[in-house]
Amino acid sequence: MEEKKNNEQQAVQAQENTTPTAAPKQHHKKQPASELQLTSEESIKAKRLKIRQAKRLALIGSMLILVAVVAGLAIWGILHLRPADATVQGQADCEVVRVSGKLAGRVVELYVKEGDHVRKGQRLAKIYSSTTDATLAKAKEMKNVAASQNLKVERGTRYEIIASAQKMVEQAQSVEKQAIAAEEITRKTYERLNNLYNEGVVSEQKRDEAKAALDASTAAVGTARAAVAAAQSQLEMAKNGAQPEDKAASQGMENVAQATVKEVEAVLEDQYLIAPCDGEIASIYPHEGELVIMGSPIMTISQTADMWVTFNVREEKLNDLTMGKEIDVTIPALKNREAKMKIFYIHDMGSYATWSATKAYGDYDSKTFEVKARPVVDIPNFRPGMSVILK
To answer: In the chain, which stretches have pLDDT less than 50?
Structure first.
């Protein structure tokens, strides 16, 4: 800074020396050439310094003017401009039904393709399983065997067995009669010998032998009667057939076999997949010839007849979105078509969809709600996935 001041003083002195005055002429001595050259260089430096100072002042002034203009525009925008309301955008959606079956096998034929409209009850695909067909054949054979066994039990014992039992009863009765006759003879013999023994005609041994023969005859009669009873029981059993418990068990086995057949047939019913509702085929997962497992989805059907729109709205805007209210929307994909929709569902989206406050004071956490609305009237060409703007 001191050097600059010295330069400026030298420049001023040089100007004063070079400026002509009206003073009277005086005789001066001529200055040397070196002093004249030094004086001209100092004047040039002084002029350059003034120019630089002037440019610096001009630049600072222009910057101050620019800052003032920008600040003024910002203040004017804050005072006069208002932020535009945030656009609430939703998305069209519909119910999607997955079509699957209980049969594991190979997809042999597809009767529809993606984009086709189907009706409830329409055939969609055919699945073939050789293993299930073999299981059905085996179940039917088991049913036939159980039915035959049950029929045999219900009919009872064969005629030949009943006739044989009848003959055994007759033989036992014949033996019983013979035993009774033999007992009668031995009884009379014993009575005679006992009388003769009392008269002293026969010995005691003879009488005892007659008594032993009588006892043997009596025992033979009892054995014959037991044989008759046993033969009659066998005949009665043959006539009655199986016991009630055996009949119930046989009938139960036949019922189990029939249920097995019905179970396999119910699985085979799913070899033809049937549309559960009206709609549009959205996706088909397997190709013809591919294997699928039980319960795996084969295709999906979009129920385009029942469309709705889902909006995600912060809770402070729910005051204008109440249950049952009709709202105005715009559909950009349909050339900004305007439509009316009716709100039928409002539910919070949980803590994961909470808008956190960014200020320590003067703000609060706001939850997001899911709002669904259906068109009041059908909208042609309105499809799932289209954007919908809430006015």
So the answer is: 1-2, 4-5, 11-12, 14, 16-31, 157, 357-362
Q: Please state, as a whole number, how many other Cβ atoms lie within 10 Å of the Cβ of residue 186.
A: 20
Structural domain boundaries, residue 351 = 88-97+297-390
CA 206 – CA 227 distance, rounded (Å) = 32
Q: Residue 383 belongs to a domain with what CATH number?
A: 2.40.30.170
Q: Are residues 243 and 325 in the same domain?
A: no
pLDDT tens digits along 127-170: 888 777 777 777 777 777 777 666 665 555 455 666 676 777 77
Tokens for 207? Answer: 């009488």
On whether both 73 and 136 belong to a single domain, the answer is no
CB neighbourhood size of 54 (10 A): 10
- Secondary structure tally for the chain: helices H, strands E: 6, 13
For the stretch 327-343, pLDDT in tens is 999 999 999 999 999 99
Separation CA 107–CA 293 (nearest Å): 11
- What is the number of domains present in the chain? 3
Cα diameter, the chain: 227
3-state secondary structure of 121: coil
pLDDT at 71: 83
Same domain, 135 and 257: yes
Distance CA 360, CA 367 (A): 18
Measured from the Cβ of residue 219, the count of other Cβ atoms closer than 10 Å reads 12
